[in-house]
Amino acid sequence: MSSRFVIAGTGAARGMALGRARLVQPSQIRVDERPLAESEIEAEVERLRLALQQAREELKTLREKLHGALAREVGEFIDAHNLILDDPELTEGLYALIRKGHYRAGTALKMQRDRLAAAFEAIDDPYFRSRREDIDHVIGRVQAVLNRDTTPAERQIASRVGTLLVGDTIAPAEVAHLTEHGVLGLVTTGGSSLSHSAILARSLRLPMVVGAREALERLTDEDLLLIDGGSGEIVVHPTAQDLARYRQFQREQARSLDQLARFKHAPSQTSDGVHIHLYANAEMPADLAQARACGAEGVGLYRTEFLFLQRRELPDEEEQFTTYRNVVLAMGGAPVTIRTLDLGADKADATGLALAAEPNPALGVRGVRLTLRRPAVFAAQLRAILRASAFGPMRILVPMVTSAQEIRDVRALIQDCARDLRSTGHEIADHYELGAMIEVPAAAIALPALIRHLDFIAIGTNDLTQYLLAADRNNDALGELYDPLHPAVLKLLAQIIATGARANKPVTLCGELAADAHCTPLLLALGLSGFSMHPSSLLEVRQAIAACDRARLRRLAPRLLRAQTRAGIERVLASVG
Ligand code: PEP
Ligand code: MG
Questions:
Q1: Which CATH number fits domain 303-436: 3.40.630.10, 3.40.50.2300, 3.30.565.10, 3.20.20.60?
Q2: Neighbours of 352 (CB within 10 A)
């Protein structure tokens, strides 16, 4: 009888999901290392024999379920896995470890895995490295059978639901592929809700829990889980009551979507009649449809790096042009802000463009620092963006800007590309706007000098917070320190917004802070009038805006900037009622 327990983590992408656990790092399964007594040996050999048999059965069932092209592709893997399971060297080695070494089956599997891994590690050949992964998967499957603690009823539910991926970390590039493979949600032992993987999970509407430290130790493949990406709770072996709660959640979600729906076509306006610009952040085509449905004024941030992350070869100019043009067309004449490639830091690509081996990647050759060093790659992207500009209003946004020289260099490159395109008969818009992400503290502080080189600015609070507070946005151990409402961040935000207003240049905030409806009054108080966020938050923020009296909030700004804590900020805001 499996018994319910709960693992705590931090919610990173809202929503609940019910699914079967799929462990990404099965090698980390904790095994019982106590030696066997002589009298236990034969029973343990039998336990392993049955687990191997069960693993074979599972592979057979899996193979029977596959059809078409998938059957060919995945079928090869399954055959390879079957061969490993039948390999006498592996199985005899396992039985010998139990009989002669008095190891339990789990420990024997782990030892065989480590031995084979070391042998494969020594061979510098990609084919053998992938064979090593096969061995990991096969041994993980047998371990899972050994550790399985599910009731038949639970297995029946599990067979009908998709999978929840559980790992130490899940790279943004992996996240992008997941929904295509029936993954319903994500759990990581580390990570943070500010990571690009979490941003992408929100974009894909995949509930995600991060910082669930015990997850890999306590979970077994195929365990039935109910995860809550809001509260960060992971219920293992959920009871009928939990499942009822899940159904209730689904009903409530449908209801609150209904309620918010009335804000779909409402103006983005404060109670005292000030228009606030609401734009969408987008990574995926589905985001664009949602952006339009929720009445976004345009796209405030299109993260192009995700086009580069999912593959081994760089997308060429043509492919990029098609993608950007489709974004522009999907937005039906509303302005689109395409951000140039922001690879580096936690977004290392498979093409080898980002220097993954840098000692300090978040402070390294990232964003515009990288693209300016790769002018051919940069030019292909800029040309694609310029060509897409013929189809609708276009803004070009440059990430990780630190100095005016970088902006001048980018502008010069754009001008070269534009000249070239025109001279070869390509149609491009007469007008485009060039802006910078303000996310490096130096750029924020020196903004009065930088801004004359720019047509608009976009504040990247995700990075600005990490760089200003020297707190890695991906490190959950710094969760408390990483606070976008820290007085230093708020002070700098107020300065950036004021500098933009003085120069008469549009300012939007496109970090995750913009999507937090609790922070909407605070940001309005600081003078912000442009927000860009994932479309799933647009209606909530529009609702929050409608409840705000901007003039009264603006008067609170000096007091808000003096507040030292979140509670202090709340108190000041509460005073407007
Ligand atoms: C930011 O840094 O706030 C931002 C919007 O960009 P990204 O999260 O892609 O770094
Ligand atoms: Mg950033």
A1: 3.20.20.60
A2: 10
- Atom 3 in ligand 1: residue holding the nearest Cα: 460
Taking the centre of ligand 1 as the mean of its atom positions, its distance from the CA of residue 269, in whole angstroms, is 26
141 in ligand 1 pocket by Cβ < 6 Å? no
pLDDT at 89: 83
Would you say the CB of residue 439 lies under 6 angstroms from ligand 1?
Answer: yes
Structural domain boundaries in the chain: 1-27+150-261, 30-146, 303-436, 439-577
Classify 514 in phi/psi space as left (phi over 0), alpha (psi -120 to 50) or beta: alpha
CATH of domain 439-577: 3.20.20.60
- By three-state DSSP, how is residue 357 classified? coil
> Between these two residues, 119 and 486, which has the higher pLDDT value?
486
> Do 1-27+150-261 and 439-577 have matching folds?
no
Active site annotation includes 177: no
CA distance 432 to 201: 31
pLDDT tens for each residue of 280-337: 999 887 789 889 999 999 999 999 988 887 677 889 999 999 999 999 999 999 999 9
- Tell me the CA–centroid distance for residue 423 and ligand 2, in Å: 35
Residue with tokens 């993987």: 197
Catalytic: 519? no
- Is residue 197 within 6 Å of ligand 1 at its C-beta? no
Dist. CA 550–CA 552, nearest whole Å: 5
Q: pLDDT at residue 27 above 50?
A: no
pLDDT above 60: residue 412: yes
**Higher-pLDDT residue of 167, 158:** 167
